[in-house]
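All the exercises in this workshop are built on plain-text protein records. There is nothing in a record beyond a sequence line and a structure line. A learned vocabulary of local backbone shapes supplies the integers on the structure line. The question running through the whole workshop is how a given chain folds. Here is such a record, shown just as it appears in the course material:

***
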Amino acid sequence: MNAPTTRKGPQALDIKSATLHTVRLVLHSADTHELLEALDWRMQEAGAFFQDEPVVIDCSAVTDPIDWAALIHALRQHQLHPIGVCGHPDQEREAASAGLAAVELAATRATIEPTADLTPTVSMPAAPIILRKTLRSGQRIYAPDGDVVVIGMVGQGAEVIATGNVYVYGPLRGKAVAGAQGNTEAFIAATEYDPELIAIAGVYSVIENPESNPHHKQSVMIQLDGESLRFEPLG
């Protein structure tokens, strides 16, 4: 019988891999004034939804130099925590001097590549996360590999986030985010629509006056239609 394996050396810590859910900040300009103005507007519109979230800055669509110090300071003023950057190598090197790590964002769409024998393969989707309970203020559910199904109420201040679809069989009164990694085919379905905020693949809507919303407390499915959210009745 083999003796149990024991680790040598100090045991005060371990280094392990982890998957982290972050906010992706996509830059469309390098102009500092435009960026800070847009950030102020977006954060005012979103309220406290993104507060204390880690942020990866996607500057891959920008070629001009970026004032990283000013942008990082502005993000922290809004209680966001920039941790990394994704862009051209020169931009990543400049961002590194400001303390941001270069990261590679996960692909949001599947790609198909021909194989030598062209044998078809079947990719099975990840099983959804299913919850049969009420989510209360401060609680968050995140599905990094697929859908979330909540059979119960999502209360005010609660969050449901999925890289796939979000299904709420009950009142949706908190926040729901589908397509969290950019999946534009994702959707949100709720049997009683009364949320604080919804978002699909980065396109979001903050509901400030619920009773004036034409879909208030209705059964709806929400999908992307270009850069807008499209509502359809369920059933």
Observations:
- DSSP finds three helices and 15 strands in the chain.
- The two ends are 62 Å apart (CA to CA).
- Residues 129-233 form a domain with the Pectate Lyase C-like fold (CATH 2.160.20.70).
- The CA atoms of residues 11 and 109 lie 41 Å apart.
